[in-house]
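Q: My collaborator sent me two sequences in one message, no labels, and asked for predicted structures for both. Can we handle them in order? The first one she listed is below.
A: Yes, handling them in the order given. First sequence, followed by its structure tokens:
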Amino acid sequence: MSKINAFLEEWTPYLWEALIETFQMVSISLIISVLIGLPLGVLLVLTRPGKSLDNKYLLGFLNVIINIIRSVPFIILLFFILPFTKFIVGTTIGVQGVIVPLVVFTAPYIARLMENSLLEVDRGVLEAYEAMGIKTKDIIWNVMVREAKPSIILGLTIATIGLIGATAMAGLVGAGGLGDLAYRFGHLRYEPSVMYVTVAILIILVQGLQSIGNFAAAKLKKD
């Protein structure tokens, strides 16, 4: 018991700081990624053949860009766009320095998830609203997004969990957070107890988020 108390006394401040940094990275990156990914997902749907903005060239271009970015593992993308990150935010370290690669990595993923969710909406429902002469923009936000909410929530849950994993890898470039703590102290300084605790915290975060996402999606389906 004394060893546990000693560990908590020594490492609790570091763990709290790392946890806060992880929350900052995930929340800021997720908000920006949703602001980019959701409209992009809508555009992917509307530019498909037979849709209101049918444009095979734009659709093809977007598909290629999204597929290229999604093909690159985050750790490689992180280092590859360091000059771009430096240009945008002026630094490549700390929470601020990892937001750009996290958004570049997550936004296309969210766009693809949103596209799949919106395509699940019953075509008959859309045709009924189109027959009433309702504008495309109103159908998008008031019908498609509303009908796809449960699927969108589950998609965002998956994206958030992936984002947490990416922030852990971002610790390799001194981004802070739980990944940085586990790498610097747990691995480089041979403190296995720190590694075990950070892994346990990450597992709890992921399990908690997945449970919340499942509950929210199930509730929206009932409503």
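Q: And the one she listed second?
A: Here it is, processed independently of the first:
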Amino acid sequence: MVLTGASLQRTSLRDQALSVLREALVTGSLEPGEVYSAASLATELGVSTSPVREAMLALVDEGLLEALPNRGFRVVSFTEQDFTEIFELRMMLEVPGVGRAAELGLGDRVERLSHLVDVIERTAEEHDLAGNLQADRDFHLLLLEATGNRRLVDSVACLRDQTRLYNLRRLTADGDLAGSAAEHRPLLAAVLKGDRALAEELMRRHLSHIPGDWSSGGEPQRGPTT
């Protein structure tokens, strides 16, 4: 029983560390190209090294970190070609995925999705980038869960996390999150109506802003569509 309890606690710490590290990647606290040690990050978090190392290895599996023997973990840097491929994959997966969700129905997910839309809109008004991105992620993945395809959800989750590693740090309180936030309520309404064509069109438009958000030629023209 003692060992079982220790294992559960360890898993909890690993999950908590993973959540914190993922947010740090989103906000730019962990910077692309920089190398970080599990020990130093564990010290900052006030926990032992093991759960932090496990969390970082999970991010390696997701393609967000790279393990460097005897050095630590480096935040992966993506090229414009990488982002182009990610964008194309997301279009291929998320647009028909949302359409499929409209056909199948949302089941008992409606209340949670409606709440997430409220959170997305509120965090946009408050210029809470990290909170907005988390609610956005939860919303879109929950929509795709309605397809019943776990691999689809996992694949999109990974692609979405990779999307966030570029340019988001430059979005300050002046970033236009409202434009992206406003697109979620109509999308949910289309899915609830079972209108596959409309849901797919709205999702396509929602994703179409991504290349502009990634553009390295200047400041983003609007808040991130993630």
